[in-house]
Amino acid sequence: MSNAQLSVRDLEVRFPTSRGVVEAVNGVSFDLERGQMLGIVGESGSGKSVTAKTLMNLLPRTAEISGDIHFDGEDVRAIASGHRKHFWGVKMTMVFQDPMTSLNPVKRCGEQISETLRYHLGMSREAALKRSIDLLEQVGIPEPARRVKQYPHELSGGLRQRVVIAMALACEPELLIADEPTTAVDVTVQKRLLDLLDELRRDRGMSMILITHDLGVARGRCDEVAVMYAGRLVERAETEVLFSDARHPYTTALLRTIPRIDQPSHTRLVPIEGRPPELVNPPDQCSFAPRCRHAQADCLEGVPTLTNLDGNREFACRYPANTEAGRTSFFANEAAGQTVTGLTIAQPSEVN
Ligand SMILES: Nc1ncnc2c1ncn2[C@@H]1O[C@H](COP(=O)(O)OP(=O)(O)OP(=O)(O)O)[C@@H](O)[C@H]1O
Ligand SMILES: [Mg+2]
Question: Where are the domains of the chain?
Answer without folding.
Answer: 281-352
